[in-house]
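Message: I would love a firmer grasp of how sequence relates to backbone shape in proteins. Thank you; the sequence and its tokens follow:
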Amino acid sequence: MSDREASPPRDVLQLLGRLQRACAHDAPISILPAHATLSCTGRLASASVDGVGVELPNPPEIEFEGALLEVTFPEGSGTAGFSSTVVRTTAGEDAITLVLTLPEQIRQESRRAAVRVPVPRGTVETTIVEGSGRGTVVPIDISLLGMLIEVDEEQRATLKVGDGFWLRLSLGRMQLLVEVEVRREEGRRLGLRFRWEGPPPKQMGKIMWKIQEKRRRASM
């Protein structure tokens, strides 16, 4: 048997197994390019010895090809992560697909991060109803702790890190009014943190569940 036909080493097979299990569970991922301050979210789409495929709906306006990425995803009761480089990108109508080099190792993160879920276009109407920058915004991803939004140029001129305002989230018949604070900014994208008094309301959990259901259907 030639070297080309030989089976991959055991450690590579174990690494692939972990990634393929995450793909099978449609695991949401968080991606932070080395040249960006705000991360974006997507899903693990495939994993093989030829590389790792990830899909990013609503991608930021940055150059991904050749970029070094930090990728995290939920695994069991914790969070795992790895570093990888983008070798190829394919643009679609509402998303881009990245092919990453197969990482040499997967790290086990020390604490569980809040799972962030990409928000499919047209599913959650998001509106600033009180405070600076009133009007409709574009939700990019959401978790129980916060969300990433994209605003227009006029709204961006009125918002900065540290500002607080109220958002109304509408999904079908469900509506939720939440107080938020701007924690990070990059271009027209703002990273928000929810100001909960106590645990997140049950309505937020229902909205998260509905979003994940719509996302799974869209990926089938």
The chain has a mean pLDDT of 86. Residues 117-219 form a domain with the Thrombin, subunit H fold (CATH 2.40.10.430). The first helix runs from residue 10 to 24.
